Amino acid sequence: MKKIISLLICAFVALNMSFAQQQITPAKKGVQYGKKIDAQNAISVADLEKKLQKNENFNGKITGEVVEVCKKKGCFLTLKRADGESVMVRFTDYGYFVPADIVGKKITVEGRAKIKETSVEWLQHYAEDKGASKEEIAKITKPKTDISIVADGVVVL
To answer: What domain of life (predicted)?
Structure first.
C-alpha cells in the first residue's frame, strides 16, 4: 500500500512539473511573480555593476531587459548587460517561476545581488536548462565569477 501511495505521489509531482510552464501567467505589463513589488526606486543593471564594485552586496530593486529564461520550467532568467554578457537571476527558494514569453520584456526584480563564483557543474546545469547542445555544455570547463541575483519578486513593466 505504501508503495502505491508513494508511486501516485511521484506521478502527481512529475505531472505537475511537466505542465509547470503552462500554468504560469503570461508576461504582460503589471503581472507579478513571487512577492508583490513595484518599480519605484529601482536601479539599472549598469548601476548595479557600479554599486557592486564598491560593496559586496546590494539589497533592493533592479530593472533590466530579460535575455533568457530557463526552458524547462522558468526557474531562472538572465538580464541584459551593456557588454553583451548577462546577469543570472534565480528565485528565492524556487518559490515561483516565470513564463518563457518574458524574454525581451523589461522587468523589475527585488532581492539580493552579489558577486559570486559559479562552479563548472552549475554553469553546465544552467546551460542545459537554457537548451544548449551537449557540445556547448562540454566547452564549459572553468568557473565564472559574475553578478548573481536572488529575487523575492518580479514585476513586468
So the answer is: Bacteria
pLDDT value of residue 9: 57
Angle, alpha carbons 148-152-155 (nearest 5°): 100
Helix, strand or coil for residue 37? coil
Q: What are phi and psi of 153, to 5 degrees?
A: -155, 160
- Within 1-155, residue ranges assigned H as helices are 2-18, 45-54, 120-129, 134-138
Whether residue 108 contacts residue 65, with contact meaning beta carbons closer than 8 Å, is answered with: no
| Residue 131, CA distances (Å) to 19, 26, 70, 86, 115 in order | 18, 21, 8, 16, 25
What is the per-residue pLDDT across 35-66, written as a single tens digit (0 to 9) for each? 999 999 999 999 999 999 999 899 999 999 99
Q: Are 63 and 43 in contact (CB under 8 A)?
A: yes
Q: Where are the beta strands (DSSP E) in the chain?
A: 32-34, 43-44, 57-69, 76-80, 86-91, 106-118, 144-156
Instruction: Compute how many other C-beta atoms are within 10 angstroms of the C-beta atom of residue 32.
Output: 15
What are the structural domains of the chain? Answer: 26-156 (2.40.50)
Chain centroid, CA 58 distance in Å: 17
Q: Nearest 5°: CA angle at 91, between 85 and 94?
A: 130
